[in-house]
Amino acid sequence: xxxxxxxxxxxxxxxxxxxxxxxxxxxxxxxxxxxxxxxxxxxxxxxxxxxxxxxxxxxxxxxxxxxxxxxxxxxxxxxxxxxxxxxxxxxxxxxxxxxxxxxxxxxxxxxxxxxxxxxxxxxxxxxxxxxxxxxxxxxxxxxxxxxxxxxxxxxxxxxxxxxxxxxxxxxxxxxxxxxxxxxxxxxxxxxxxxxxxxxxxxxxxxxxxxxxxxxxxxxxxxxxxxxxx
Length: 229
Prior knowledge:
By secondary structure, this protein is of the alpha+beta class. It folds into two domains: about 5-135, Sandwich (Jelly Rolls), CATH 2.60.120; about 145-225, Arc Repressor Mutant, subunit A (Orthogonal Bundle), CATH 1.10.10. Helix content is about 45%, strand content about 25%. It has helices spanning about 5-10, 20-30, 85-90, 110-120, 120-145, 150-165, 175-180, 185-200, 215-225; strands at about 30-35, 40, 50-55, 60-65, 70-75, 80, 95-100, 100-110, 170, 205, 210. A four-stranded antiparallel β-sheet has the order 1-8-3-6. Strands 2-7-4-5 form a four-stranded antiparallel β-sheet. Strands 9-11-10 form a three-stranded antiparallel β-sheet. Helix 6 packs across helix 9. The chain is elongated. The relative contact order is 0.13.
């Protein structure tokens, strides 16, 4: 992969690393491709390394004893996943599945930890990533435990708006079924909430395209200052 150093330099985890360190990473990385619906790893598998999404989308999810699915995260280009169990020396605590045709970079645990020992800047980048992940989990627990579903959806739409550069119109990159699981609800409930938000002039929905038409109202719903009628 002659262009691997350039690809790595655009990934936030490796941002600011000198060319020599990027080339060291290139020597250990394994390029992997996954079909839509293909399993990346299963809960309980040994954490032999972590992944970074280059192209595509990967969902991380848990299954209850009854078979109910709860999506924990959906990762897109530039985002790493599976790093926590790898550095804790444990098994993967959840399932990972490609939800689109995906290209992933795989970093073997032993080779990567050896590089961290040689490169303090890489260790600092990894520490920043783990701190960010902890914050994300804290926010997710708060959303699922303290907010009703309309507030969760409003907050998620605000998050997507910020991720897309602050625009008021953007496309949903995931199916509404996956979005329902991510928000801890079912597709039928989510569809009703989308309809009510549209009727009250908060958003406009055109297929996967979402347009925020009342930014202040959506903010009030996300923060719990108002309820969805």
